[in-house]
Amino acid sequence: MKIIDVSVIVLTHNHEKYLKKALESILMQETTYKYEIVVLNNGSDDGTGEIIDEFSGKYPGVFNVITQMKKKSPTECSLEAMVQCKGRYLASCEGDDFWVDKNKLQKQIDFLEKHKEYVGCTHPIFLVGEGNDIISRKRLSWVSGRKVFRINNYDGLHLPGHISSFVRRNLFLNKGFDGTLIPKANEFIGDRTSFLLWLEKGDIYQLRTKMSAYRVRKLDGSLTKVLYKANLKHSRMEFNMLNQINDYTKRKGLKVKLKRRFLSIYADSVYDCIKYRDKADKCLPRDVRCQIGSGLCNISLPFFLLRKVFRKIVYFT
C-alpha cells in the first residue's frame, strides 16, 4: 500500500479561469514527502471538470477526484474531502487560490515533524486580484498575527491564518474524531469551525514567510459579497453559527472568548434595523440580548456602533 504523507485538498466550483494555476502550484512542490491531491468538483457547469480530467490523466496515481454532479454546500464538501484523505497531514488550496513557494509543504511538514507539540502551522499570505496582481493595501481583518494561537485565543472570528496556509495533522485518522460541526454550524463558512476543532487538540504556530495567495474576486461576485454586503440576513447567519460554536465549546468544556463576538453581532443587528427598517431582522437584537444579557448589550452598543461606522471592516471568508 502506498504511504502518503500529506493530502492536499482542492475544493472547486466553476473555477475554470483559475484552477490550472492552483493545481500547477501544488505540483511544483519540491518535497521529500509523498502527497496526493484530493480534488472535489462541486457541481461545476463550466470547464472545471475538463481541467481536472487533463491533470489527473497526466499525473496518474497523484489525484483522487471526487465529483458532485449536484452542487452541495461548501462545508459538506470540505468534510467529505477530509474524510477521504489518506495522508498523515492535510493541506488546502481552494480552486481559485494558489501557492507561491515551491518548498511550502517541505517547510511546514518539517516544522511539524520537529515540533510534535503543535497540531498545525500557518503562514502569512498574499492577496491577489483577478490578474494575479498583488493587492498591497488590503489585509484579511480576521487573520491574527499571533505567533502561537491557542484555544483560549479563539473568539469566533479571528483565526490563526487563512485556510490555504494551514498544514495540520490529519485528525480524521484518529478513532472517534468527529468533524460534523463543520457543516452543522454553517453551510458556507467552514474555516472557523475547522480551526476550532484543531485548536481543541493543540496549538497552531504561524511561520513568518508568505507562501500562498488568496484571490480577491470582484468581476464575477464573491462569496463575501453574497454572504455579507448584499445579504440582510448576514447577522442572523452569524448569530446562528456562533450559537452552534458556543454550544459545542460549552459541551466540550473549552475556554474560548465568544462574548465580544456576540456583542458585535448585536451592534450589527441594531445598525441594520436603523438603516433598513422593515427589511431588517427586527427579532435579532432581542435574541442576542436573551443570549448574553440586556445590560451588557446596552453598555457596549455605543462602542460597537461607532466602531462599525468609523472603521471600514472588510471580511474575506
Average of the residue pLDDT scores = 93
The secondary structure category is alpha/beta
**Which regions are unreliable across 5 or more consecutive residues at pLDDT < 50?**
312-317
> What is the first-to-last residue Cα distance?
38 Å
Structure write-up:
It is a single chain. The chain is α/β, with parallel strands linked by helices. 40% of the residues lie in helices and 15% in strands. It is built from eleven helices and eleven strands. It has helices at 19-27, 48-58, 74-84, 104-114, 181-185, 191-199, 223-229, 234-252, 259-276, 284-292, 294-310; strands at 6-12, 35-42, 63-68, 89-92, 98-99, 118-122, 126-128, 148-149, 167-169, 203-206, 212-215. The strands form two sheets. It has an eight-stranded mixed beta sheet, with helices on both faces. A three-stranded mixed beta sheet has the order 5-11-7. Helix 2 links the parallel strand 2 (35-42) and strand 3. Residues 312-317 have low confidence and may be disordered.
